[in-house]
Design a protein that fits this description.
This protein has 145 residues and is mainly β. The protein is 14% helix and 46% strand.
Length: 145
């Protein structure tokens, strides 16, 4: 009985393999070919809050500009931790226009050196990564040597 199930499983795997559609690379759009894509460029991609006390909530505004020739559409800002939150002030930025992404860092429950990231996903060529640093002093957590 086990061998029949095993043979059916193998047959199912190979039969699905034959039905796979090969993905074809779509030709680049006229916009991409002619270099007309939006281009997001930040004034700074890193910010160091320095030494902070646990429980502090800190904010920093990352400023950027669309250096491309077409509209920049920011789809989302994805964080790597629940302790940071990113807010996009305006998601559609025309060519040459400036924008702001505000990052809020909540240091509650943390201690020591912290490095947190925010990935900005947009219609530009590649995602951008913003980084914040902080050294959190937490008197409630004691490290014994």
């Amino acid at each position: 009985m086990k061998s029949i199930v095993f043979i059916m499983l193998i047959a199912g795997i190979f039969s699905c393999d034959g039905n796979k559609q090969k993905s074809q690379t779509e030709p680049e759009s006229k916009t991409a070919v002619s270099g007309q894509m939006p281009k997001i460029e930040f004034e700074e991609e890193m910010h160091d809050f320095g030494l902070v006390k646990a429980g502090e909530i800190l904010t920093y505004s990352f400023q950027f500009r669309n250096l491309g020739k077409t509209d920049l559409k920011i789809n989302k800002a994805e964080t790597d931790c629940g302790c940071i939150e990113a807010t996009i002030a305006k998601s559609n930025i025309t060519a040459g226009e400036k924008g702001i992404i505000e990052v809020k860092f909540n240091s509650a429950g943390l201690f020591g050196k912290q490095l947190k990231t925010v990935e900005i996903q947009s219609n530009s060529k590649e995602p951008k990564h913003l980084i914040i640093f902080a050294e959190v002093e937490n008197e409630q957590i004691e490290i014994k040597n």
